[in-house]
Amino acid sequence: MTNGHLDIIERSAKLFDEVVVAVMINKSKQGMFSIDERMEMLREITGHLPNVRVDSWHGLLVEYCRRNDVAAITKGLRSVSDFDYELQMAQMNRELSGVETLLMSNNPAYGFVSSSLVKEVATYGGDVKNLVPGIVFERLTAKLAERA
């Protein structure tokens, strides 16, 4: 999770009565943190937001939404290429399930930040402290030290 993700979650929490942060399980991707570790960090990071809960799901996000009465998906946009991709996803999701997608422009301070870029920079010893929440920075640093 980056500060950009947190910004979108916090802004969404002001708009909706309940926000569910869904950690998607993708067996074809090997993340740095396990699903449980990611969920634990997310719960800590969003603990100041009483209307945010964290859950996980294996499968299509729209199926999660359908089964849990989630009416809308909120996504952050950093760039035009994000918009192109997310617009297609939003249209597909609406076609599949009727679930709406709210595309929010990013805070310009985080426009260049992506999880994969943060992970790559941190792996090579770059300072990512100002790009991720403190908890993520601590756990990322510890995880990289374990691997070294």
UniProtKB/TrEMBL annotation:
Superkingdom as given in the UniProt entry: Bacteria
SUPFAM superfamilies: Nucleotidylyl transferase (SSF52374)
Residues in coiled coil: none
Localization of this protein: Cytoplasm
GO MF terms held by the record: ATP binding; pantetheine-phosphate adenylyltransferase activity
Location of the Cytidyltransferase-like domain: 2-120
GO biological process annotation, one example: coenzyme A biosynthetic process
Annotated catalysed reactions: (R)-4'-phosphopantetheine + ATP + H(+) = 3'-dephospho-CoA + diphosphate
Pathway connected to this protein: Cofactor biosynthesis; coenzyme A biosynthesis; CoA from (R)-pantothenate: step 4/5
Keyword entries, A-Z: ATP-binding, Coenzyme A biosynthesis, Cytoplasm, Magnesium, Nucleotide-binding, Nucleotidyltransferase, Transferase
Binding site for substrate: K29, L61, K75
Residue positions binding ATP: H5, G76, L77, R78, E86, Y110, G111, F112, V113, S114, S115, S116
Gene Ontology CC terms: cytoplasm
Subunit structure: Homohexamer.
Protein name per Swiss-Prot or TrEMBL: Phosphopantetheine adenylyltransferase
Gene: coaD
